[in-house]
Backbone:
């Protein structure tokens, strides 16, 4: 009996020893390497720096997870999303524009993973309500909203004062100021707006349209482009374009911001990164730029993009991808994302510590407190294809085909009649939305 007890003890000791020896291998098996592919669909270089730093920090506490950050322009994304879906090579994570989310989701094989669990984990009530609801489609959140990108008219207070002009509150004021301040013989121009047929032209046009009470879609999704308000917005754009710097037919978002930063135009319509770039170039002119939403109808409505994080349902690492997205909303990394945007993206998530940290670092914010007050008001805003109708898969087609911007570019370049331009845009939008 004694010998059998000894044998039994030896057996269990051997099993325990073997378990101890194999334990590290079991842990390694549970921590198999995970490589996440992340597409960042904005071309500002600071964004990649931010995300690579975030990936490195995440790797410190999650050593089995690495993140490959691939950056591209928005125009490239419009092509690469459907191409990757068709070839089965979608990334795990993508920086997504809310107006394209339903379109991507409804492409065969393009389904986006529900992000409801991430929204709940971060705190649903901490997101700006309209910014979050814009991502709701077919019973799920297609993405997690991170930043909003509204457009404003930025105007040089010093140039206006020198000419005896007041703050431009209407588009009539803006046109008059552009005419008065346009002095090409001195290298001074009235305003910088894009003329190139890409998304920036459309978005500036949208600001004029929405601020005057116009829409591209009705509340029930009917195309409503060919009307008096839309035609007036085209005419306003055309009139302002007379007072732009040379070469503006080839100017897009980056060129408009660069031109304003260099100091030659008295005004520019852009995202608020234009202010950051101006301040970096002219710190001695602190406080000499204002921001406003002009309107001939007394409205404070502008154009705004809403961007955030989406994950493809085909990702083999959904859980890990969601954890990394959630990590990007922690204080230091959300603040770093806002700093990388340089006012080109404003917070949609109320991480107060992160926002305060960002505001404490940004020199342009301290130099322009009145502009910051305007930016933080979260004005009502719309986006082409979404408008006040809501999330739908056709919106992405409107943008990816460049319907509005293509026709507006031809209108500016060839002096095509306003009525004809509005009619052609109306017809092409009706074809996209399947309407007679």
Residues:
């Amino acid at each position: 009996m004694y010998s059998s007890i000894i044998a039994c003890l030896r057996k269990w000791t051997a099993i325990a020893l073997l378990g101890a020896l194999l334990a590290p291998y079991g842990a390694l098996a549970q921590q198999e390497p995970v490589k996440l592919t992340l597409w960042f669909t904005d071309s500002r270089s600071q964004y990649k720096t931010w995300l690579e730093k975030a990936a490195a920090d995440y790797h410190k506490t999650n050593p089995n997870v690495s993140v490959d950050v691939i950056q591209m322009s928005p125009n490239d994304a419009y092509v690469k999303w459907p191409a990757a879906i068709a070839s089965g090579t979608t990334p795990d994570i993508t920086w997504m524009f809310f107006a394209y989310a339903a379109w991507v989701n409804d492409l065969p094989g393009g389904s986006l993973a529900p992000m409801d669990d991430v929204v709940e984990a971060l705190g649903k009530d901490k997101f700006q309500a309209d910014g979050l609801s814009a991502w709701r489609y077919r019973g799920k959140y297609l993405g997690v909203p991170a930043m909003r990108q509204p457009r404003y008219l930025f105007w040089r207070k010093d140039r206006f004062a020198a000419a005896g002009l007041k703050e431009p509150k209407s588009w009539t004021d803006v046109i008059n100021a552009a005419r008065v301040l346009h002095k090409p013989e001195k290298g001074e121009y009235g305003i910088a707006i894009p003329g190139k047929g890409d998304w920036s032209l459309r978005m500036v046009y949208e600001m004029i349209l929405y601020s005057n009470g116009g829409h591209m879609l009705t509340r029930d999704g009917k195309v409503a482009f060919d009307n008096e308000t839309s035609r007036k917005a085209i005419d306003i754009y055309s009139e302002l374009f007379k007072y732009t710097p040379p070469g503006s037919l080839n100017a897009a978002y980056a060129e408009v911001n660069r031109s304003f930063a260099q100091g030659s135009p008295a005004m520019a319509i852009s995202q608020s990164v234009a202010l950051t770039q101006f301040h970096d170039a002219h710190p001695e002119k602190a406080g000499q730029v204002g921001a406003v939403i002009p309107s001939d109808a007394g409205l404070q409505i502008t154009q705004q993009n809403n961007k955030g994080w989406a994950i493809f349902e085909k990702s083999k690492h959904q859980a890990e991808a969601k954890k990394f997205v959630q990590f990007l909303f922690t204080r230091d990394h959300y603040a770093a994302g806002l700093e990388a945007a340089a006012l080109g993206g404003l917070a949609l998530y109320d991480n107060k510590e992160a926002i305060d940290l960002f505001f404490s670092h940004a020199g342009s914010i301290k130099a322009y407190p009145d502009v910051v007050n305007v930016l933080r008001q979260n004005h009502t805003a719309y986006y082409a294809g979404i408008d006040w109708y809501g999330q739908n898969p056709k919106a992405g087609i409107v943008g990816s085909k460049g319907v509005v911007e293509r026709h507006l570019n031809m209108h500016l370049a060839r002096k095509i009649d306003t009525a004809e331009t509005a009619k052609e845009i109306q017809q092409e939008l009706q074809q996209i939305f399947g309407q007679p």
Observations:
- Residues 354 and 426 are 43 Å apart (CA to CA).
- The radius of gyration is 26 Å.
